[in-house]
Specification:
single chain; mainly alpha; two-stranded antiparallel sheet; globular
Length: 134
């Protein structure tokens, strides 16, 4: 496991690369909507909500895949995550939630799709390319 230790804090390389990939995707969004600031603010609000949902689903998805952890090791919920299946579930849930939030705020589905598809491509491409190079 590649990690960077900063005092008592241990940061995994994969998490840092994922955060950088998300930053690149946000830069795409900011440049694409630079002339429509009201739409950008709405999208930023939805992205924050979506990111929080992603973290919660990823963290607690272990309950779906290993429900026995509740009675064998309840404190394991604090330390364990859903793994790869949890990432997939959280990503699907986050994309559906973002579409739902965009629909509620009267964003066009075409506008939302023009936003979501390149963002997913940017995140996946930059993540795997950086993980390969580093």
């Amino acid at each position: 496991m590649d990690a960077i230790q900063l005092g008592p804090l241990l940061l995994k390389k994969s998490i840092l690369v994922l955060l950088f990939s998300c930053l690149l995707a946000y830069l795409y969004i900011a440049v694409y909507y630079r002339k429509r600031q009201d739409t950008l603010k709405t999208i930023e609000h939805h992205l924050v909500s979506t990111a929080l949902l992603w973290v919660l689903v990823f963290k607690f998805s272990i309950l779906l895949f290993r429900p026995s952890i509740l009675w064998t090791n309840p404190y394991g919920l604090l330390f364990f995550t859903g793994g790869t299946k949890g990432v997939y579930l959280a990503s699907i849930m986050a994309i559906l939630f973002f579409y739902w939030q965009a629909h509620k705020s009267n964003l066009n589905i075409k506008t939302t799709t023009i936003l979501v598809v390149p963002v997913v491509v940017i995140i996946l491409t930059s993540y795997y390319l950086l993980m390969y190079l580093l």
